[in-house]
Write a structure and sequence with these properties.
This protein has 4 helices and 7 strands; from the N terminus they run E-H-H-E-E-E-H-E-H-E-E. The termini are far apart. The protein is α+β, with helices and mostly antiparallel strands. It has one domain.
């Protein structure tokens, strides 16, 4: 059984409505990959996960581009802009909205602590802040949390994810049988 559920969202927003259709596609595509490849793309690496999210966005009618060249804020004094790479761009032509996402991924066997979640999400947000404002209507840091253990993460780790989700703008759980994946989105 594959499904999607919000942990945190504001159902009144355009994002909640459009992203719901997008993110509902992820477990379906993930199941197809697992069946075809005998492996879960979410436990390979961040690039495979972003590709899966881009495929799901396209399947839901959104435009998507992964690992694209973008303009980013530099790190030096005065912070001039430079060419960089953004993990994922998703657009909704009918609304004129678009989102640039910078991703970080945690793949764990069982345990996950609060500090690791917070630091990783902040790293994604820091990268998202560097994306030029003209690249998308909104910029988000996103943390992908997956378990490489078929029995999933410990109950305490899942609890920590749900607590951390409350400090985000959107968070969801994508289930396939017993091995969920969590996506935590924070607007910057």
């Amino acid at each position: 059984m594959a499904n999607f559920s919000w942990i945190k969202s504001d159902e009144r927003t355009i994002e909640a409505n459009l992203w719901k259709h997008w993110l509902q596609q992820v477990p379906k595509i993930r199941s197809q990959f697992i069946q075809a490849m005998q492996g879960d793309p979410f436990v390979y690496n961040e690039t495979a996960s972003v590709g899966l999210l881009a495929s799901a966005a396209s399947r839901s009618g959104l435009l998507a581009m992964s690992e694209y060249v973008s303009i980013k804020r530099g790190t030096g004094r005065g912070r001039p802009y430079r060419n960089g790479r953004c993990d994922l761009w998703v657009g909704a032509p009918e609304t004129g909205r678009s989102w640039a996402f910078e991703m970080k991924q945690l793949i764990r066997k069982k345990a996950l602590n609060e500090g690791t979640i917070e630091v990783s999400l902040e790293a994604a947000c820091s990268d998202a802040r560097k994306v030029h404002l003209q690249e998308a209507t909104f910029r988000y840091g996103c943390l992908i949390i997956a378990s490489s253990n078929e029995n999933g993460l410990s109950g305490k780790s899942v609890e920590r994810i749900h607590v951390a989700a409350q400090a985000t703008d959107f968070a969801c759980q994508l289930d396939i049988k017993t091995n969920p994946v969590w996506l935590l989105f924070k607007k910057v």
